[in-house]
Amino acid sequence: MTTKLQTENLTKVFGRPSKQVWRMLKEGVAKDEILKRTGCTVGVNNVSFKVNKGEVFVIMGLSGSGKSTLIRCLNLLTKPTAGKVFVDGENILEYSREELRRLRQNKMAMVFQHFGLFTHMSVQNNVEYGLAVKGIPREEREKKAQQALEAVGLGGWQDMLPGQLSGGMQQRVGLARALANDPDILLMDEPFSSLDPLIRRDMQMELLELQDRLQKTIVFITHDINEAFKMGDRVAVMKDGIIEQTGTPEEILANPASDYIRDFVQDVDRSRVLQAKDIMFTPDALLSRKSGLKMAIREMQLHGISSVFVIGSGRKLLGLITIDDAVSALKDNKTVDDILKDDYFTTGPEIYVNELIPLAKDTRYPIAVVDENERLLGIIVRASVISAFVG
Amino acid sequence: MTTKLQTENLTKVFGRPSKQVWRMLKEGVAKDEILKRTGCTVGVNNVSFKVNKGEVFVIMGLSGSGKSTLIRCLNLLTKPTAGKVFVDGENILEYSREELRRLRQNKMAMVFQHFGLFTHMSVQNNVEYGLAVKGIPREEREKKAQQALEAVGLGGWQDMLPGQLSGGMQQRVGLARALANDPDILLMDEPFSSLDPLIRRDMQMELLELQDRLQKTIVFITHDINEAFKMGDRVAVMKDGIIEQTGTPEEILANPASDYIRDFVQDVDRSRVLQAKDIMFTPDALLSRKSGLKMAIREMQLHGISSVFVIGSGRKLLGLITIDDAVSALKDNKTVDDILKDDYFTTGPEIYVNELIPLAKDTRYPIAVVDENERLLGIIVRASVISAFVG
Amino acid sequence: MFPEQITLELGKYVNDFIYWLNNNYGMVFDVICNGVRWLLLNIEWMLLLMPWWFLIALVFILGWRLKSLLSGVVFAVMLFIIGAFGLWEPTMSTLAIVLTAVFFSLLIGIPLGIYMSSRDSVALVLKPILDAMQTLPSFVYLIPAVILFNMGKVPGVFATMIYALPPIIRLTNLGLRRVSQEMVEAAQSFGSSSWQLLFRIKLPQALPTIMTGVNQTTMMALAMVVIAAMIGAGGIGHVVVTSINRIDIAGGTESGLAVVFLAIIIDRLTQGLGDRFNANLS
Amino acid sequence: MFPEQITLELGKYVNDFIYWLNNNYGMVFDVICNGVRWLLLNIEWMLLLMPWWFLIALVFILGWRLKSLLSGVVFAVMLFIIGAFGLWEPTMSTLAIVLTAVFFSLLIGIPLGIYMSSRDSVALVLKPILDAMQTLPSFVYLIPAVILFNMGKVPGVFATMIYALPPIIRLTNLGLRRVSQEMVEAAQSFGSSSWQLLFRIKLPQALPTIMTGVNQTTMMALAMVVIAAMIGAGGIGHVVVTSINRIDIAGGTESGLAVVFLAIIIDRLTQGLGDRFNANLS
Amino acid sequence: GGDELVLADAGWDSIQIHNGIASFIIENGYGYETRVLSGSTAMTFTSLREGSIDIYMETWQGNLKDSYDEGIESGDILELSVNYDDSRQGYYVPTFVIEGDPERGIEPMAPDLRRVDQLHDYWELFEDPEDPGRGRIVGSPPGWEVDLIMKGKVEGYGLEEHYNYFSPGSDTALATALVGAYEKGEPIVAYHWEPSWVMGMYDFTFLEEDGFDQGKWADGYTCITPAMPVTVVVNAELPEKAPDVVAFLENYQTSTALTNYALSYMHEHDAGTDEAALWFLREYEELWSEWVPEEIAGKVREALAQ
Ligand SMILES: Nc1ncnc2c1ncn2[C@@H]1O[C@H](COP(=O)(O)OP(=O)(O)OP(=O)(O)O)[C@@H](O)[C@H]1O
Ligand SMILES: Nc1ncnc2c1ncn2[C@@H]1O[C@H](COP(=O)(O)OP(=O)(O)OP(=O)(O)O)[C@@H](O)[C@H]1O
Ligand SMILES: [Mg+2]
Ligand SMILES: [Mg+2]
């Protein structure tokens, strides 16, 4: 994996930071205190992270914690007070104006928190803007813009002025404008905040698919934890200008670094974060096909369970037998193969828990988690599905 | 319950609606079609609803479906093309300028989707604005503004200019500005859309408490379904300028009027909407204290269950017996009272399902739903908790 | 080119009208004059009462407080140079006329600009009038002015105002019309009266544009100094005219520069005041 | 008031400088003149070539297309009245001078305004110069101008430009500085070059303010018609001067009105063109 | 006395000198306060008719022909005397055009040029910068009566074949053009008049014409232009207000030469018009003593002595 985007000790202080401010920052004086004593606002404080090519890096955090400032530092719309920003290994702070311009034209596009639409241009021209700047010929430009507008569901609106659109439509114009430009890196500052759930879901899918297909690198700010965990390969949580924790959604859910983060993720819908593999467990009892019925009954009785999965060579899942069947089969001198049932559910290891809920509700047996070769990886019982909701 | 706010056949068409437009509206021609053929955009189409005093009325809907237009019609910032708006029974469209002014000063305040802060004023002065307009003396004004700022968590920021704040902070200034005014009716257009979950949760609580304590009437636009269902006494779902369905969150969840709405509420976290009473059922078997053990065992075997609740007079819940205990007690000549267990969970009927999840996970018995007099209302089994998630 | 048969003798009627006005309403014009004269003479009297070093010191302090130390110094030096040109007295006299004219221009112009911004119909009517005020050659109305108001400083003030009024009206109108609709709506949603909307939101938001209007009005007033002198307003304008008639480049330059310095000082101090005012508002 | 011992004779040096300039660089000025003269004479030649009804029809059509039918009619009637005043020929001559002056003013002024908005230091230097251009009494520079460039239409254009340039520079500067930072940043985030930012975002956003500048420049140019005539530029200004020297209110009013009508026609057509241009941009 | 009399200052030097002379006598001899009101010719003359100016010491009536005649006719103003009537006006060229200027290294350009009708041969010398291929004769400021005459001469002499009659727009521009051309050593032919400070300060040559002849005058003004009387005019109400001053002004008479002396005094001594007036009063005591009764003259002399 190649590092696409990286920051090193990035710091942004608004106002004229005096020596005193730097000293206070070093001493870890609180942001509020610094504001009160010096009048300088700390936007971003000594932030370092890496984003790999093709990764979605989500930034979350309290309102005013410096997310927008951080993302704006990445394309130098806000000039950092200190620190470095690397894109493809080059420190863009050392770029000449011309180099910076080319970087912004070709590699990065931004979706703004407040949309930043051009009020004097039609929707179409807004979306074409990035392409026009690059000197793409008109026809191609129009085609791409039209595609981007279709993608965000604003097909027939291209001739309107931004002021004539609703808030969410304006936001989507901003989105289309960035997408039309087809950049390597997408910087998205709360790009879906004004969207209703239906369109938002569409946009999320669209974006994930795009990212997957074209290996886009995306830095994504959102306040919706479910969105963060759904979209993000890794999530960073900011507080007072500092990144408090970075990790995969599961890591953060599993090991919140502080009470603040625990609190933060409280609302998360775990069933949309956790996958089958996260909640499955290795069954206490398993029956090899070669074992006899007696063995099966003993196993079940031993572990106080009423059914057991039967596996073949290489843990290939063959079926399930219940204790009742086993007992009567023993009487009737039948074999394991004779009473093998297949009315249980199987699932893949990466299926999200929320998709397992209907299965869990309908089944009387545990759910079997199998890989693509039908090998049994683990089982999921109802209780594990429920426990996914409480962590 | 008194009706505080009411609209009757409210319609807003942007552009100069010709006769043709009206005819097309009547014929139910689609909004897109009208736009294409006449250049007029339908904002709100023939909307009627009532909001009672002390109610939180939530409006949801696709981006561009007319929510903002509708809410702006309620204080006549947008002048409806047709229809009536009643506040406290008076049609405010017939108000003189002066009456309208007083209405806006005293009865209504609005939180804007795009904040609408005054860029030349400090945060403090922004928040004081509504009070200053009413002629509240300076000291009181300052105190109230300060309180409102504290309430939205912007205590120390009063001297900043809006442009120096982050998006979420700006949104909270807009919130504080409306709250400081202490109006009867709060019109809130996506007031929390830029807030992180922690602050958003605080704000929601704050608002609900305020509404509860002071019987505020709130019209609230949001895209967050969980927020809608959490905040709203009633929820209206808009599409293309029309209200497709109005109802309590439970009604909408239970009987979505169309596929569109079904789709819309798909993401809802039902566990936060549904309460114990929504998922409990009347147990198949119940044991009266006076019945003997034999009766108990027969009941359980009959219904294929392994435990049964025991009730006294007036359905008062006394305890639970298991089939195992019952069988051995019968042998030992014990009575029902002797084997009565109390290690099951009970819950109230209005407890949200998400709070039942930990119980459901830990218990081996059904959960008993009882009223304040310990009378058994119904039982909840694990499967019902899980099924709450799929509807 | 244009056929000679077609003629229109509008001018004659105007001529007759002016004389008719003068014969019948001469008194009215006298009353108007007296008001303006009172202010003008008092300003002039005060200016001439102040010792020169006092005024220089005053300008220095104002410049320093309202703008910067450097500005204060520059303004003081400019005023000193005017004195060194030997133009102190006529400059004070001109200053009195210009201040009076600017004062009345702003007094009339800002409200008119506000009114103009509030209704398109007003703008439609006012625009050609403003165009006429700015382009009708001043001599054309100066002769009627002399007939109606006689010669002197007061008609000088009027002539100056005719020319100095349009920019402040226009730019007040422009500034107010360009205030963001979002803020206006927010203010309305709180039931602001038109006054409150105007004073608390629109005017502060439009201030930079209005201040450009104030600048242009000041500039125009000072550009009229010479014209005013032609109807007997005296002051530096008179010195300029005399120098010009002698083709005295030296004298013309010095008196011209005095006007320019005055313009810069008045303008910068007004701008400083505007900024201060704006800062206090917010 | 101001002590008489303190004197400064700056004017003398200016005087000497002008004569020195003339003696040493007379040729340079001749070259500049020839360029302006060429444009001016061609415009005038074209205007006088057109039959009067053709020009009236042209103005009608332009007014109709760019503004409204009513505007077209009003403009045509105005032009007709000018003809009926017997002022067709001098009006065409003035039109040529004004168009030339406005053309060069915009050509120089808009870029300067842009430059001024881009750097505070430029603004700091330029502002007093603009103040001086607007307030230095025109004859103060006209005398050197006549010495350097002789009398006639070309120095008339220069004199007009000195006065007409400042508003367009100032208002271009103001308009550009007031463009919303948000849009500028959005444009920058796409790697716009300064040019693209300017032409696609800033100028269109500033257009209403710039158009007010164009209006003011036009007004100022027409306000200078008389002054220009005083150094031999001819045209309606000449008619005005003649009337004034004869104390002929009627003649003054008619020729003055002709200037006003010209102002209104030019201004409204320019505004209409600006709106059209803006609509096309978006 | 006690009344205030207002004198018109139309902005040129000679009127200011005459104002100085008259007001000195009025103030010190007759005991009236005086005030000078400055403005352009048109404005001051309008004011004279309207009554806010009482006395106009130097009225170039030819420049204001219609208005002047109207004023007299309607009885708004009274012509009291002719200040001087030996002024001269016509076409001038810088003398170096004819004689050259060895000091500045200027060769004679038209050594034979004497008369207006000879201009035919020299149009190339006076080329119009805005209309190459023709000559330029700079005429009178517009609106003056003499403008028609000067223009008429160009036609009368047939000069319009080679020349454009160029209107300078204002007397200032005219003077500037003359001075500028002189300083640059360039040829120019332009209308001007004497007495004026331009003619006093610079060496110009008056182009001769035939003696005055009614027939030639009627036929294109092809003869010398008669002198324009420069008069003392007062508002019609002055005789009531200050009859003694009217009597004095009725006697007021100087000459071009005398006025020119005062002007040259000014320029030579770098003096103001007030000083020039005082100088004049001292220098020409006999002259002004005749304008006033002896008693008054005594008072004035007394004041002069101080
Ligand atoms: N000023 C306007 N001029 C023309 N059309 C407008 C205007 N304002 C809104 N509309 C149109 O009215 C419709 C409804 O817009 P509205 O802003 O009410 O939507 P909304 O439901 O608030 O959407 P969102 O959730 O995106 O804010 C949209 O189609 C929009 O294009
Ligand atoms: N232009 C500015 N001048 C001064 N302070 C600023 C400026 N922009 C941002 N800040 C400050 O920097 C801090 C971080 O702001 P930022 O906009 O990055 O927050 P954010 O995390 O994006 O918040 P939100 O979720 O509310 O958008 C805030 O305290 C804010 O007040
Ligand atoms: Mg932000
Ligand atoms: Mg909306």
What does this structure look like?
The complex is a heteropentamer, with two copies of chain A (391 residues), two copies of chain C (282 residues) and one copy of chain E (306 residues). Helix content of chain A is 40%, strand content 23%. Chain A is α/β, with parallel strands linked by helices and 391 residues long. Chain A has two domains: 3-107 and 183-268, P-loop containing nucleotide triphosphate hydrolases (Rossmann fold); 277-387, CBS-domain. The relative contact order of chain A is 0.10. The model of chain C has no long low-confidence stretch (mean pLDDT 88). The model of chain E has no long low-confidence stretch (mean pLDDT 89). Classes of the chains: A alpha/beta (391), C mainly alpha (282), E alpha/beta (306). Chains C and D meet through helix 1, helix 3, helix 4, helix 5 and helix 6 of C and helix 1, helix 3, helix 4, helix 5 and helix 6 of D.
Question: Helical percent range of chain C?
Answer: over 70%
Tell me, rounded to a whole number, the average pLDDT of chain C.
88
Number of separate domains of chain A:
2
The number of helical elements of chain C comes to 12
CATH architecture descriptor name of chain C: Orthogonal Bundle
CATH topology call of the largest domain in chain A: Rossmann fold
Question: What would CATH call the architecture of the largest domain in chain A?
Answer: 3-Layer(aba) Sandwich
Structural class of chain C: mainly alpha
First CA to last CA of chain C: what distance? 61 Å
Low-confidence stretches of chain C are: none
Instruction: Compute the average pLDDT of chain A.
Output: 89
Topology diagram in text:
The complex is a heteropentamer, with two copies of chain A (391 residues), two copies of chain C (282 residues) and one copy of chain E (306 residues).
Chain A (H helix, E strand, L loop, with lengths): L2 E12 L4 H8 L4 H8 L2 E12 L3 E6 L5 H8 L7 E6 L2 E2 L5 H10 L1 E4 L11 H12 L3 H14 L15 H14 L4 E5 L7 H18 L2 E5 L3 H7 L2 E6 L2 E6 L1 H6 L4 H6 L11 H4 L7 E2 L4 H11 L3 E5 L5 E6 H10 L3 H4 L6 E2 L5 H10 L4 E4 L5 E5 L1 H6 L4
Parallel strand pairs in A: 3-8, 3-9, 6-7, 7-8, 11-12, 14-15
Antiparallel strand pairs in A: 1-2, 1-4, 4-5, 9-10, 12-13, 15-16
Helix pairs in contact in A: 5-6, 5-7, 6-7, 13-14
Chain C lengths: L9 H40 L2 H15 L2 H16 L3 H31 L1 H16 L2 H12 L3 H25 L3 H9 L4 H30 L1 H6 L5 H10 L3 H33 L1
Helix pairs in contact in C: 1-4, 1-6, 1-7, 2-3, 2-12, 3-12, 4-5, 4-7, 4-9, 4-11, 5-7, 6-7, 7-9, 9-12, 11-12
Chain E lengths: L3 E6 L3 H18 L2 E6 L2 H10 L4 E6 L4 H10 L2 E8 L3 E7 H5 L35 E4 L6 H12 L6 E4 L4 H14 L5 E5 L2 H5 L2 E3 L7 H5 L11 E6 L2 H4 L1 H9 L4 H14 L3 H11 L1 H5 L4 H12 L1
Parallel strand pairs in E: 1-2, 6-7
Antiparallel strand pairs in E: 3-10, 4-10, 5-8, 5-9
Helix pairs in contact in E: 1-11, 1-12, 1-14, 11-12
Bound molecules: adenosine-5'-triphosphate (ATP) (2 copies) and magnesium ion (2 copies).
The site of one magnesium ion has 4 residues of chain B, from helix 3.
